[in-house]
Amino acid sequence: MTLPGFPEAAPLAGLAGGVLIGLAAAVMLLGLGRIAGVSGLAAKAVGLGGSGIARSGAWMFVIGLPLGALIVVLAAGGLEASFASPVTLAIAGLVVGIGTRLGSGCTSGHGVCGVSRLSGRSIVATLTFMATGIATVAIMNALGLEVL
Amino acid sequence: MRTALTSLVSGVLFGAGLALGGMTDPARVRGFLDIFGDWDPTLAFVMGGAVIVMAIAWRIVPRLAEPIFAGEFHLPTKSDLTPRLIGGAALFGIGWGIAGLCPGPGIAALVIEPAAAAIFVVAMLAGMAVVRLFEGASS
What we know:
The structure holds 2 protein chains of 2 kinds.
Chain A: H1 11-32, H2 38-45, H3 55-76, H4 86-102, H5 107-116, H6 120-142
Helix pairs in contact in A: 2-3, 5-6
Chain B: H1 2-20, H2 26-33, H3 42-60, H4 83-99, H5 103-108, H6 114-135
């Protein structure tokens, strides 16, 4: 199914993926009483602070991410994806790492778990990173910086 | 053991959802952020689906005396809007916009484009280490 006016969009796959992400976060919340925030769990796994979960639990969650993606890759017979150059990826990764620790979360912890809880901090954080993300892409496009 | 297994199930579901929703493709994520250009609204459906399911989950929480597989809930209690929160979120958004990757898709993409994803993930962990270094091991 396509969306009128947006031939590139995949609304049904997006919604289905979103429901799975919601279920994942619900398993973490109702099962273990914790927030499924990827940046916090990744930090915890490697011993850089983050979530209060046991380190082994953080590792299992982090390892689960590529395993889950692999199931979809195998079922779909490959997935389309284009990535930026190594230097661009390194810069972006560094900024994402610093930002998520200072801002106490990312798209999952703030954007999914916090927004659905109507947390004021998470709503402000989400609006902020959406705004700067949009501005970054707009500025890069205006400067003619093609990264992908 | 229950913590490890529950975490694994959550991670696998999460990673599958990211891949299915197209979030492991940076082009799609940057397409969503490109509202002044050729906008791709797919990520809004991903966020919408996830938030609806989690909004239901949050309504179940008060009915549970404790989590199903753990002794007690450990949920964020902070409510103050600090420069650190907003500055950090602003920085994160910039990094997200530059390469079209956030932490979850970056890690999940290790099975899609291993070398590229690994560079992003290692740099991300280095960024986290920088914050840790400046703050000491207290937080």
